[in-house]
Amino acid sequence: MSGVEGRNIGNYDATFWGTNEIKAGKPVGKAEGYATLNQALDVAKATTGAEVITEKNGKFHLNEVRGTSYSDESKSEISVRAYPSVNFSKFVAFTDDHNNVITQFNNTPNLEKLGNIDQVKAKLAMMPNNIPANQALKVAGTLLGVASPATYKTSEKLMESLKMMPKYLPNELKSKFEEMLTPKNLAILSATLAVYAASHAVGVGEAADAIMLGVALGFLGADAIKVGKDFYNFATVAANAKTTPELEKAAKHLADGISTALIDGAMVAVGSRVGRGGKPTTIEPKPTGRPPTTPVEPTKPIGRPSTPVEPTKPIGRPATPVEPAKPIGRPSTPVEATKPTIVEEFPVPYGNKINKVKVALKDDVAVPTGKVEIFIRGKAKTFTKEMAEELKSLNEAKKANPKEFEANPENVSKLKNLEKLKHNFERTLEMAKTLERAGIEDTPANNQMIIEKLLEAGKSVTKENKTITTEIKGSKGTVIFESKWDILPDGTKYMNTVILKPKK
Amino acid sequence: MLLENIYSQDSEQIDYSEIDEEDLKKLVLDFYDPEIATSALSELSIRKSKLIIDLSNTILKDSIGDNFLQSLAFKSLYEFEKNKAIEYIKNNYLKCDKRILLSIMESIIIDENYFKNNLELKIIARKAFERLKKIPKNNFNIPEDYEWVIKEFSL
After folding, report:
1. pTM score over 0.90
2. CB-based contact (8 Å) between A478 and chain B?
3. Which residues in chain A are closer than 8 Å to B106, comparing Cβ atoms?
4. Is B34 an interface residue toward A (CB < 8 Å)?
5. Could you give the ipTM of this predicted complex?
6. Alpha carbons B77 and B8: distance in angstroms, whole number
7. Hey, are the CB atoms on A388 and B9 less than 8 Å from each other?
8. Residue in B33, B37, B9 with CA at minimum distance from that of residue B23
9. What is the pLDDT of residues B52-85, one digit of tens each?
């Protein structure tokens, strides 16, 4: 095995060695060991694009993203290592030539930025198969939180910079923009801006800047030149950024431009244009001049694998549909809610296993559809007529000859299992009745409505509050839905179960 | 380890035999997921755990969980500590929830001889039965259970 490997020796004095070319990135370029840590880190950084040293709470940590190709080229390996200050920690995710993602761990209880080893395992297990080595590198880097802007696509760089932007705004604007920059709006804006950045790469002039600014953000103030310049700086600095500070710099440019535009009264234009429920959603860029020569990659959320796996049966999280950009200020007409996406095989980790569940997914909230369409409707086939018959005959056998019955542990165990299933089944029947009594009949439309209410409820889930109470009114009464949630390792708010009670 | 993310699983997907008794007890008392709580209580009963008597007693005394969990707790108590279960019957047969009453009646019918030979208990059993008979059959989620009790009771 070869590549770039780091050892933490004393005060960050380390030796590195590398031989073969790194398949997943650029060649290492050096056959023997590196004289200094910095030299080695430079190579590692140039190779992987990862920030290899991070600082946390005043302590430095050496992180390494490593790509290796074996001499026989039978497989390539991508690894990410984190070296907390004292204990050696290692986390390896690599792909072999058959494109399987394999994981390997050393005996470490904690990994910086990732939580405990089980959470890492769960995250890795959710990675789809068939990801090429160069993407595994990025995924692995992202998992450890060490992926750097150098590995991002243009649209992702812009998205990250957009996310950083509100903190540079004056306080009175900050919250408005934070609210506006939802993940979906970020996706659409960054995709748009990527086109802009690409157009600039081929020399589109200031007129295009102004048009793009107006179209993409919805405001063009009196000081259009300053705004245009700031916007230009934002887009180009972000698009070319290789480090986080560069993205921050880009964010500052954008914040300056926005502040200027708004101070000059551009908010009036925004209010008149989008504040009345206009269509700020069609932010299709139409740059003047030559079309961009570089194709713009579709926007995908950072941190999720970018390779689609079997389009009909997504294993990973699907890319969420792009939501219309939220207008600044309060719209006078309600904005139409987006429909949730149905994911047939949503991965839900449990120990070392991954169970796949059909869910309705909206933003980062997932509701298993079976909990609504089957479970609370009393349709779960967990206690069949045959089971009921068997339970009856076991009870009769127990009654007829208790001692003989008890002497057979298999009988006892079977009876208890059936009792358990019966009680759980009865509970679902009770919930079904509760819904019927309230006039919330078992129809696809009603079930969809319930799912959407629960998806809405899931938005307010926090680490501290994972039980959410929602009331749903039917034609004859109101039902209280007590939904219980978990936050999965990737941040998805996942509804575990729901208990229904009639409102008295 | 096994408890981590357990609530994101369907109850039937969980292998309760791999969970230790203290964790099972926690799952029951948390009553975070009623199905998992019920299954955990059942597992403790199958294992004849030392925890089952106190746990069942607590569930009934403090009305933990819902009527279905309490019904199962009653049956467990009856199996492992009959005296306490009888005490529960005496104190609650006229006021307990209908689902628990049904479980009481099922236990009485299966252990008929015990009640036959004790006048006080026989009277209580009859009164409990009378109360059950007044409850309409369709108030029970599985009316066949109710019908079975009506048919089999002979004290």
Report:
1. no
2. no
3. 395
4. yes
5. 0.90
6. 30
7. no
8. B37
9. 999 999 999 999 999 999 999 999 999 999 999 9
